[in-house]
């Protein structure tokens, strides 16, 4: 099924287009059969405008259209007793309907719908009794059919998009932390700040959060995707932990920048290399965490646990060297960096997964 959808998508026949056409045609058939309307175009138009990317969006669109149609029809029927169709009556009916809808603080789409339905009922409703009521029923019918079709026919599942976004986010976080090791190098007076890399990571965090929100919308009012909600909750927790890791990376960047300013001479090579090793090992934990969030196989879990063990070892070695430092300012900055690195490890350990034990090597 996914392969067929992909082929149709390449030639322009997206799933949403097919569902929209089917909803419009079915609405026309049902309206013709139930209401005996000769041209139930309101039902077809309602179906076309109601089919959206997610079921929640379709329900919202259907509600707006129904409210707009009902408001426009009732207003036009009320004012139609004093107006005959003409340029003057069209001006006043649209002016009054839109102003009233605006005063009631309705959605902009509802305001336009009120004006359109008022005009149509004024133009055609006077020649046929019950015209306005039939248009309301057609709109409700078309909107309902569109919502049902959107929910039952291959409903959109945005969870794979969230998983892909998490992989990208975690990979970029790991890369960003590794890139910050360049702030420890002596660049002959040309200081790096790492701000560009961190800003890119923050932007990726926002994109990941948007993907999560869209996935939440895709599951709303969708009974066929109810089992996916537990998975989405787990992914939401993963994103929250990655956001916490991002906060720690920002803190590390600031501490490294302070270290550049407060340290008149470059750190000894021993301290620099050990801190770089601790940062790179911690970055491996972030990358492994992203993989584990998507694929919780025993092998991937063991990779994460091994990465955590290595990072803890490197951080411990770095911590052992701190007692050789004599500058309190440098000691403070180094301690702050190690604290943030330790918090990153804590976040990667907070997976709601059962890790398989790493087999001990035989000696």
Quick structural summary:
By secondary structure, the chain is an all-alpha fold.
Word description of this protein:
- The protein is an all-alpha fold.
- It has 2 domains: 2-152, no CATH class; 159-348, Methane Monooxygenase Hydroxylase, Chain G, domain 1 (Up-down Bundle), CATH 1.20.58.
- The protein has 13 helices and no strands.
- It has helices at residues 2-10, 15-35, 41-50, 55-79, 87-103, 108-124, 131-152, 159-179, 195-219, 228-262, 269-294, 298-320, 328-348.
- The longest helix has 35 residues, at 228-262.
Structure keywords:
363 residues, mainly alpha, Methane Monooxygenase Hydroxylase, Chain G, domain 1, 2 domains, 13 helices, disordered C terminus
Topology of this protein?
Elements: H1 2-10, H2 15-35, H3 41-50, H4 55-79, H5 87-103, H6 108-124, H7 131-152, H8 159-179, H9 195-219, H10 228-262, H11 269-294, H12 298-320, H13 328-348
Helix pairs in contact: 2-3, 2-7, 3-4, 3-7, 4-6, 4-7, 5-6, 8-9, 8-10, 8-11, 9-10, 10-11, 10-13, 11-12, 11-13, 12-13
